[in-house]
Design a protein that fits this description.
Layout: H1 45-57, H2 64-80, H3 86-95, H4 97-128, H5 131-140, E1 168-170, H6 177-184, E2 189-193, E3 203-209, E4 212-219, H7 222-240, E5 242-246, E6 252-258, E7 261-267, H8 284-291, H9 330-342, E8 349-351, H10 357-369, E9 373-377, E10 384-388, H11 393-402, H12 406-411, E11 412-415
Parallel strand pairs: 1-5, 6-8
Antiparallel strand pairs: 2-3, 3-4, 5-11, 6-7, 8-10, 9-10
Helix pairs in contact: 1-2, 4-5, 9-10
């Protein structure tokens, strides 16, 4: 990405000066534009001061647009570690040398004061044990998991300024995906035929959210027109809303009965994805990997990559369901699910076909009593039961984006809306809409 592609934010439109693109060349700038116009609402004081100082220091050397882009590039490099073409990074490093050194000295001094304050607060807590001291120590602990704005400040507001407010697109459910997400967000969703048709024999449909038309489509009949409008609507909301997709190869807790009792392991073959195409000779990924030199087995120079899931034992009280007790009963399964609920484990719990139809029915009831979601997949002897914790969309976004919780990051893929791309540059890649627009 070149420096001209670096996102910038402006609250006003300015007259742009067309100058030579060579940064080192001194240009004649009138200096009439106001640097303060480029401050955005989400920026902390520290973040803005650094960007402002950069622009003020070089306002007489560059035209407005180029300087704003260079300043944003400097901020992205300093706070987020972004990388750009070598020529751009050398230029920005040279321009920001004095400014960056002064900023880093101030930050180091501030951190030193913070650690001293934390030490004093800990001493107060030991002596007085007051609630105020406890609160201070807790707020200063480095283990705090809440991610703050760049440079400090208040926690990031995930939904502030978004066009569709708290609407989150959970990429599942096929053609009903958008409707289901609107119901969750308590938004009105409607698909209807347009009153006026453009041509005879051509139908036109439109999609509305809260009575506002967001997409239209046309086709030979109304069904095709609605599908075309739906595809346009999905592309639009994916640009302006958070999108969440379940990782098909996520870790899943596998519970299986055997002659030696109930065994608990970890698998990446979840029951709701067993129908997905595997990496065989009919798979495109198989051929791509073969062209790259893969001959089978684990990945890595020494084929050290894992082919089989690592075994895992979820203890249940003193006994543990991995013990050699072939007489585990319903009470044991209830205790297992209870332990699962009380833990911070967000993986699905999958009961294999070795459990009978009657046992699966009982497990459905137990899951319901604990507020869990339970679904069965497969037919006959391959029937499996999948038990899942009910997690809110905002909770998922907070854990993945703000806290970077590895348990959630392994389970969910997240795409951020266009307006939040500068806050979460690692989550801007578009998620696949395959099987959701058919």
């Amino acid at each position: 990405v070149d420096v001209e592609d670096t996102p910038r934010h402006s609250s006003k439109k300015h007259k742009k000066s067309k100058k030579s693109p060579t940064a080192e060349t001194s240009v004649d700038i009138s200096g009439e534009w106001d640097v303060e116009d480029y401050r955005t609402e989400y920026e902390s004081e520290e973040h803005w001061e650094l960007r402002r100082d950069f622009m003020l220091a070089h306002k007489d050397r560059f035209d407005e647009d180029r300087l704003v882009c260079l300043a944003q590039t400097f901020i992205n490099m300093e706070f987020m570690g972004c990388k750009y073409p070598n020529q751009t990074m050398v230029l920005v490093a040279e321009l920001s040398k004095d400014i960056a050194e002064e900023f880093r000295k101030k930050r180091a001094l501030r951190l030193k004061r913070t650690f001293v304050s934390a030490s004093d607060a800990a001493e107060q807590r030991a002596k007085a044990g007051t609630a105020a001291a406890r609160s201070m120590v807790q707020s200063l602990q480095p283990g705090s998991r809440d991610r703050l704005c760049f440079g400090g400040g208040e926690p990031i507001s995930l939904f502030a300024g978004l066009r569709f407010a708290n609407l989150v697109i959970y990429l599942a459910g096929g053609r009903s995906c958008l409707r289901n997400c609107c119901i969750t967000a308590k938004m009105k969703y409607e698909e209807r035929q347009c009153e006026t048709q453009p041509d005879e024999g051509v139908s036109t449909a439109e999609i509305l959210l809260n009575d506002q038309v967001i997409a239209t489509g046309s086709g030979d009949n109304l069904k095709i027109a609605k599908l075309a409008a739906y595809k346009q609507a999905m592309l639009l909301v994916q640009t302006h809303c958070y999108s969440i997709k379940l990782n098909a190869t996520r870790d899943t807790i596998k519970v299986e009965k055997g002659q030696n009792g109930v065994q608990i392991n970890v698998t990446k073959e979840s029951a709701d994805n067993l129908g997905e195409p595997k990496l065989d000779r009919n798979n495109k990924g198989y051929h791509i990997m073969r062209l790259m030199g893969w001959t089978g087995g684990g990945l890595g120079r020494s084929k050290q990559g894992r082919e089989e899931p690592v075994s895992y034992l979820l203890k249940s009280n003193r006994m543990g369901l991995g013990s050699n007790d072939p007489h585990a009963n319903l009470a044991d399964y209830r205790k297992l699910i209870e332990n699962y609920v009380r833990s911070d484990d967000v993986r699905d719990m999958q009961f294999e076909p070795t459990f009978s139809k009657e046992e699966r029915a009982s497990l459905h009831q137990i899951a319901s009593k604990f507020g869990l979601r339970s679904s069965s997949y497969g037919v006959g002897e391959s029937r499996r039961l999948l038990i899942t914790k009910k997690l809110g969309f905002e909770n998922i976004l907070t854990e993945v984006l703000c806290r970077r919780n590895p348990k959630f990051c392994d389970r969910y893929f997240v795409q951020v809306p266009m307006q939040k791309a500068h806050l979460f540059p690692g989550h801007v890649a578009a998620l696949d809409l395959e099987n959701l627009t058919e």
